[in-house]
Amino acid sequence: MTSLHLPDLRLSDFDAITFDVYGTLIDWEPSIADFLLRWAAEHGVAADAQTLVMAFDGARARIQKERPAHLYPVVLEKCFDQICAEFGVPVNEDRRRQFAASPHTWPAFADSHDGLVRLQQSARIGALSNIDVASLETSCRILDFRFDVVVTAQRVGAYKPDWPHFDTGIGELGRLGVPRERILHVGQSLRADITPANKLGLRSAWINRPGRLLGLSGEGAAEARPDLTVSSLAELVAALTKAD
């Protein structure tokens, strides 16, 4: 995957910035890895964090293609079931329930709140998230931030990289007077965010946070072409505002 770094991408080019949430603003991956490492230790499974995270990523991608779409807690339950089957471990119902409820415990990245507040001074801020409404509401409280436009998987009955999130978000922003060419989409997942943004003609920024793996492989990820690549939201804000 080759990315483009365009120094003239400016905040003034955009009237709206839409964000993926989990992996981009909420730091979910270490929590998932820690949970699965504890589970593995309980059952004598000899697997490292990377192996377990990638097992989760593969299960998640498969389950999110199922229609009708499942609510995200059910996605997590099904992921847990598949991981148990992959490693030959019986499903523990308590652990399964805990995994399904884990979005309510995932922390924000340290730069998320300040970055979102800064960008909202100049643009409408949207969330296009593969999540359920209740989990996102908890995450908004953790972020201490309210989005101008919110599109969840629960709302549209589908999961990115399918297009309903984007179609709905683009439509809502259009009704607010924001044309497609004035939207920047920001995400950590190449598979679920950058690739579909490319196909829909949206300019995009990839926040390639160090040490994170989720969403960087699988369907379409190798073809992703972000317009700007940064390692944090703080770096994105600095790049956009410096160009202005």
UniProtKB/TrEMBL annotation:
This protein's UniProt keywords: Hydrolase
Domain of life: Bacteria
Protein name: Haloacid dehalogenase
Organism: Cupriavidus pampae
